[in-house]
């Protein structure tokens, strides 16, 4: 698992939350966490506690830790169940 995988996970969670109409602060927290990981130059293996990075709190840190340990995210799985699958591809259509 690479840092890029975790960044993509966080962006995907943020997108699903946005589609679901979640609180904008929660959506923003996932996007900021992705940016923090992207800015940090260390490989993922060298970052022991992701919550030490600016912009990553305990909640998002727990999601990252679960993904690092299991390769899966229950947060994303739950969101995928709640958001109609057809909505995500619509985001790629310009003008919508």
Automatic annotation (TrEMBL):
Q: Which residues form a coiled coil?
A: none
InterPro entries, sorted: DNA_pol_lamdba_lyase_dom_sf, HHH_MUS81, PHP_phosphatase
Query: What are the UniProt keywords, alphabetically?
Result: Exonuclease, Hydrolase, Nuclease
Q: Where is the Crossover junction endonuclease MUS81-like HHH domain?
A: 1-72
Q: Does the keyword Transmembrane apply?
A: no
Domain of life assignment = Bacteria
Q: Which Gene3D superfamilies match?
A: DNA polymerase beta, N-terminal domain-like (1.10.150.110)
**GO molecular-function term, one example from the UniProt record:** zinc ion binding
User: What GO terms fall under cellular component here?
Assistant: cytosol
Q: What is this protein called?
A: DNA polymerase/3'-5' exonuclease PolX
């Amino acid at each position: 698992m690479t840092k890029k995988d975790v960044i993509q996970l966080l962006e995907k969670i943020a997108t699903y939350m946005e589609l679901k109409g979640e609180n904008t602060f929660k959506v923003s927290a996932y996007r900021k966490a992705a940016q923090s990981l992207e800015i940090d130059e260390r490989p993922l293996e060298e970052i022991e506690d992701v919550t030490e990075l600016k912009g990553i709190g305990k909640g998002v840190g727990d999601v990252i830790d679960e993904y690092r340990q299991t390769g899966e995210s229950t947060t994303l799985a739950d969101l995928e169940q709640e958001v109609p699958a057809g909505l995500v591809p619509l985001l790629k259509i310009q003008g919508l």
